[in-house]
User: Fold this.
Amino acid sequence: MAFVKKPVTGMKDILPEEMQVRDYVQNVIKETYRSFGFTPIETPCMENISNLSSKQGGENEKLIFKVLKRGEKLKLEMAECEADLVDNGLRYDLTVPLARFYSNNSNNLPSPFKALQIGNVWRADRPQRGRYRQFMQCDIDILGEPSNLAEIELILATTTTLGKIGFGNFEIRINERRILKAMAKYSGFSEEAFDKVCIILDKMDKIGREGVSEELQKEGFSEQSVKKYLDLFELTGDTASKIETLCEKLGDCLEEGVKSSLLEIVTSVEATKTADFKMVFDPTLVRGMGYYTGTIFEIAMPEFGGSCGGGGRYDKMIGNFTGNDVPACGFSIGFERIILLLLESGFQAPTQPKKIAYLIEKNYPAQKLCEVIKKAQKEREAGNQVLVARMNKNKKFQKEKLSAEGYEAFEEFFNR
Amino acid sequence: MAFVKKPVTGMKDILPEEMQVRDYVQNVIKETYRSFGFTPIETPCMENISNLSSKQGGENEKLIFKVLKRGEKLKLEMAECEADLVDNGLRYDLTVPLARFYSNNSNNLPSPFKALQIGNVWRADRPQRGRYRQFMQCDIDILGEPSNLAEIELILATTTTLGKIGFGNFEIRINERRILKAMAKYSGFSEEAFDKVCIILDKMDKIGREGVSEELQKEGFSEQSVKKYLDLFELTGDTASKIETLCEKLGDCLEEGVKSSLLEIVTSVEATKTADFKMVFDPTLVRGMGYYTGTIFEIAMPEFGGSCGGGGRYDKMIGNFTGNDVPACGFSIGFERIILLLLESGFQAPTQPKKIAYLIEKNYPAQKLCEVIKKAQKEREAGNQVLVARMNKNKKFQKEKLSAEGYEAFEEFFNR
Assistant:
């Protein structure tokens, strides 16, 4: 069969330059999250296909890379549909595997359990700039904590991490699924229409208030209801007063305690944050995944159009899998977007060791070679990076290439 | 569909305790290899199925997890065999992807190129203790270096890393494919019989000299040839004198330069090593993969029956893929075996931060909560790990569990 030089469609090779940035960012993420008490875990990249097809994953379930059954289990001649051929699939996110992990291991885990996952996921999406079919996700989740302490810790941990990587002047946009529901109810929309209303509301930043109004009316909602609904979004003042104004308007339509909990999150984070960012209440924030039950949030970077990560509370998801509800809340950093932003800004990972290259002439005698290697070993012990390499015929070109890689000192060894 | 709690057959969830050891070992590996001038790279976990079915992978090619074609490309009703259904597969090692990576990116890589890869591979092997269907490999390779400087650097880098992790009193067994070939030739075995002879020789440690003799004669080799062959393995003295004795006996059957190169590797490594290990010449060392062309080596740990890693020179492999030979040599650490040994020995990662738990009574007022979080943020800035959690009803049990996780200091916050 022919040899294919390119990586699989939509996936990419990662070269040394990018790996340096990725490794650095991963280390900052791990260390910072660890300081907040999150502990790393890992699940296999493959999941039982029935776990991936449970309707929790929404649109992502259409994008699964499926794995063929092996050996005697594969009965090609009897297969009537795709499902007969596959037993496993590659995970499309880290949340479904976390729910399975928790249900499988909860006896051996503390409560609350604060998990950190950094791992690849796969989606057979249409490839486009900055979007790949294999990409890294970086999630923190708190399982078993019903109070808003979970939200506060997640937002503080994520923003502290972003600050340490060097990001500033960004926003954390926050909203509540229960506020979204109350707004729909207040305006006279039926409960069944809620998902449809959210899908249209989600386009606000692209089509504006007028566009949303038109689309809602096209769906059959009355002009009056739509106006009542859209007027709710007209809020002024700071984040806290916007929350207060809207929640008071919603009155009995809104569940008790939502307002005070949301205010607590915003004020606690603002009072204890270490990074340069703002908490912003955004009643148009929807977030796609249907499994969210409470708070939802998103990172908005001025340098980047879309969101650079997000999360929220999903108190019913583990119960859907296992039958027993477990309060859960998570925050995911868009790792690939963060890396893209850093690479485009010419970011250099700080605290590099000194890079030294020893170039050794061909036929350098073995006895003397030992002395050179001993010297290299000493430099390495001292924390420096030493490359021991044969001198190329075109030494000038070799040194130019090494300089471009960051080698700053050269020593040459000749057989004289 | 039913929800499955267990991981996919033969794969495993990695819990916090093991992750701590894995993360620590990975960091030592990365830092040490980096000090030797190896640069991390990554390739996608999936490869084009034709690259994985090129016969380079030997037996592993039978163990591939294959990925189903997607969308219109999957024509189930027209499929006659498995090959019609799949376009990609999960990689079974890191060497085939490295060869593809190099042929795809060599214009942007230095020469010689020293690559470090740490990544998962998949093999649908029969699951057994300590062997999983998803496991981590950790490979270093030097591409473009024809001289034995590659072997010296690979062995030094690997053994320095093992030493830093805490391993000592181990052996690096070394041999040469060309010596194996010369021994077969010297004994009168035909060139075509070479692979068969090697497969039998490989059993020496299990069935002994007598067993090997019997099996060779069963294959039709004369008693005289077999005796001549097996007598070659009777060597005394230190590593260097064993190599000299054997190579002199082999005379013209052995390619020129093999003896001096092997001696150079052994003496250079012994003179410059930093870890506690011995270089041992082992003429029975075969190593399965057919692609090796020169030196081969293996790590033998006293604590572990089999090999804990190995490698060798494979100067023809990249050429088999691309048409242009590139000298290549690699060394792979058996990451999962190393971790298993460490876990079984009760290994604890050194230099842990201080772990502090703040337990907060339910209904603790928001205003005062901010003060607690501020305090936690300060501790985190100072390098400590702080868990902020709600106090459970059974506080004693909660603290016991946290102590077991390594939390050594507790502070409790009551609403009084």
The first helix of chain A runs from residue 16 to 35. Chain A has a mean pLDDT of 91. Residues 16-187+232-344 of chain A form a domain with the BirA Bifunctional Protein; domain 2 fold (CATH 3.30.930.10).
